[in-house]
Amino acid sequence: MQKKERQDLIIEEVRVNRNVTSTYLAQKLNVSEDTIRRDLNELDKKGLVMKVHGGAVSTIQKLYHYNEEVIFNRDKKDTIAKKAGVLLKDGMVIIISGGTTNLMFAKQLPETLKATVYTYSLPIAMQLSDHPTVEVIFIGGKINKKSMVTVGIDVVQSLSQVMADICFIGVSSINELNGLTDEGYEVSLVKKAMIAASDKVVALATSNKLNIRQNYSVCGLEEINTLVTEIDANDSILQPYKNAGILIM
After folding, report:
1. Which of 38, 108, 166, 186 shows a CA-CA span of 20 to 30 A to 115?
2. Domain coordinates of the chain in residue numbers?
3. Exposed e or buried b for every residue in 156-181, given b needs 16+ CB within 10 A?
4. What pTM does this model have?
């Protein structure tokens, strides 16, 4: 295989997968890892990929590289993303909040989905930037550096002008008495605005977020239409949420 052909294949692998390791590329292309490292150095200098420790990421991630290897409960979040995907329909106006569960969900949006997505999450906006048929509207504002989302009055005001079909809201904590709560005051205000702007609210929560409480209220259970977790819908831990009239997936 000629170098030009090999490097073109590397670019395509990075574009499709966004984050690839040198080991994976070496096995895929049947060459040594040293050869791959030299290729990645050349492609990085040309601005065609971004070389990182152990591999490469898409150039769209130069602003912010999210290391998926450190996502906790990755398998659980992947299950939630697959479950939630059945709620999507062409033509929808969608709001997606931040968090790694929602990032996994955004990563798995069907390639043929035609929709408009509003998000205040920089990683999610970047993840969706390569989607061929999804229009992405990033809601600008002050960056919360811890969670890489925008917050503040500008974000809330922008959301007040949106009329969305569905909101996929990330969950920091949820319980029967307090509903949805969050650890950050500014983020809780933005989530309130997201919920107010949407006809339907879907909460995506790994089971470790159930039956706990944070300091700032987002909404009561009565404002949540659907709760998606990785556990079986008939698990007894979910009964209080069923009793509240929430559809469990």
Report:
1. 186
2. 3-61, 69-248
3. bebbeebebbbbbbbbbbbbeebbbb
4. 0.74
